[in-house]
Amino acid sequence: MAKLIFTYGAMDAGKTTSMLQVAHNYDSKGLTPRVFTYRGCDKAGECFCRLGVSRPSDMFDKEYSFLALDLSNVAVVLIDEAQFLTNRQVFELGEIASCRNIPVMCYGLRTSWQAHVFEGSSALFGLADELREIRTICSCGKKATMAHRTCDTTTNSDEDLGQDKYISVCRECWLKLNGYCR
Ligand SMILES: [Zn+2]
Q1: In the chain, at which residue ranges do the beta strands (DSSP E only) sit?
Q2: Could you report the average pLDDT of every consecutive run of 10 residues in the chain (182 residues)?
Q3: Could you tell me the distance, in angstroms and rounded to a whole number, from the CA of residue 142 to the centre of ligand 1?
Q4: Could you tell me the distance, in angstroms and rounded to a whole number, from the CA of residue 24 to the centre of ligand 1?
Q5: What separation in Å is there between the alpha carbon of 113 and the centre of ligand 1?
């Protein structure tokens, strides 16, 4: 049985870089990866990381069905921005791993800037065979686990997108920046 794997970390920890490396590894062996990113993320059919690497990718939105995919000749399914998956979609990806025997590797954030666990991440924490953490650091030197929004916008949505609006911080710094720990 193939595995469903969730790799999580704060912003800028290198999740997309890591995923693109995995895609390259499959490519170099003559095996076909199928790469997805979230439609809302302004990535226009392309997955790119901050180190400047990119590759064309398919897009998913909340209505997308992974079970409708033609996966013949696909060796692995790779999902970037997996925090935006729905519960249903995570179950579908579990089915692809278990019933079609194709590994599925998801990459995403753990919590939103409001410290809410994303739906996709929550489902993946519950269902994945394997959880992997990619670490990055807060400016204080501790491990960064959360996102702090650095600018005020009118939306309180957890999906207020745009990586330049956020910094990755540890919980202690997040609490202090958000009025706790006084
Ligand atoms: Zn800190």
Answers
A1: 4-8, 32-38, 46-48, 54-56, 58-60, 74-79, 104-108, 130-133, 146-149, 166-169
A2: 97 93 97 93 70 87 96 97 97 98 97 96 98 97 95 82 87 95 80
A3: 5
A4: 34
A5: 15
At residue 136, the pLDDT reads: 95
Query: What pTM did the predictor assign?
Result: 0.94
Residue 108: closest CA among 98, 97, 117 = 117
- CATH code of the domain in which 57 resides: 3.40.50.300
Structural domain contains residue 35: yes
Structural domain contains residue 173? no
Q: pLDDT at position 112, please? A: 95
Q: Is residue 175 part of a domain?
A: no
Number of domains comprising the chain: 1
Task: Catalogue the active-site residues.
Answer: 81
